[in-house]
Amino acid sequence: VSTCHVYIATSLDGYIARSDGGLDWLEGWPEVGHDYGYRAFVDGVDGIVMGRGTFEAVRDFNPWPYARPVVVASRTLTMADVPLALHRQVEVHAGQPRVILAAVAQRGWQRVYLDGGRLMQAFLREGLVEDLIITRLPILLGAGRALFGEVLQDVRLLHVETTAYASGFVQSRYRVPAGRRS
Ligand SMILES: NC(=O)c1ccc[n+]([C@@H]2O[C@H](COP(=O)([O-])OP(=O)(O)OC[C@H]3O[C@@H](n4cnc5c(N)ncnc54)[C@H](OP(=O)(O)O)[C@@H]3O)[C@@H](O)[C@H]2O)c1
Q: Of 75-79, 143-147, 152-156, which gets the smallest average pLDDT?
């Protein structure tokens, strides 16, 4: 069985991207001499499952930033939408969250880095998210793509730890109690 782990940056008002997908607001902050635990987090996962929206934002990155295999969850993309140079690292999967997780578990993935807002919300609704590391940047965007959306019922999370950095970034880790669906 694979477990899903979220590592994501948000604005203080809860957005992960501008409405047009822009991520410029993530840049231009004081250098702190570390990466907020990102590398260690990635080293601890076997692969990444990302939403189509996230894939479209990173597809043309050169060099390709992920050192782990990537599964793109999409009912509309095919491998024809994946640059040829990425065919060894990236695969498109059209299944529901549980089907995707079963597929990657078969490959031996134990820990999955789950990336993207709407995709994460779908996994959360299914009770498939184990924990979330959320780094809040001290900026208000006013509008954009939200990390969280509507929930069918309250979702109580367990706060594990919070670190406040000199840059003003505040990073919190939350656990989703076992079996919780939103
Ligand atoms: N701030 C950060 O740390 C951070 C991190 C990651 C991403 N981002 C940004 O966030 C944006 C993408 O996030 P997003 O929330 O817009 O999109 P997303 O979650 O990355 O992708 C959503 C897409 O995933 C596909 N999908 C497959 N199965 C799904 C399911 N069960 N439920 C929902 N969607 C499913 C759908 O595409 P189909 O219609 O093709 O099926 C859906 O449109 C990008 O702009 C990216 O740059 C920011």
A: 152-156
pLDDT in tens, 1-26: 899 999 999 999 999 999 999 999 99
Task: Assess contact for 11 and 25: CB atoms under 8 A.
Answer: yes
CA distance 10 to 171: 10
Q: For the whole prediction, is pTM greater than 0.85?
A: yes
pLDDT of residue 152: 86
Atom of ligand 1 at shortest range from CA of 15: 1
Q: What H or E segment, with its residue span, contains residue 8?
A: strand 3-11
Strand segments (E) across 12-146: 15-17, 47-51, 70-73, 90-93, 111-115, 129-137, 145-146
CB 114 within 8 A of CB 5: yes
pLDDT of residue 178: 83
Regarding the beta carbon of 23 and ligand 1, being less than 6 Å apart is answered yes
Testing ligand 1's pocket by substitution, the residue of 7, 13, 118, 128 carrying the most ligand atoms inside 8 A of its CB is: 118
Ligand 1 pocket, residue 137 CB under 6 Å: no
Q: What is the three-class DSSP state of 82?
A: coil
Report CA(48)–ligand 1 centroid distance (Å).
13
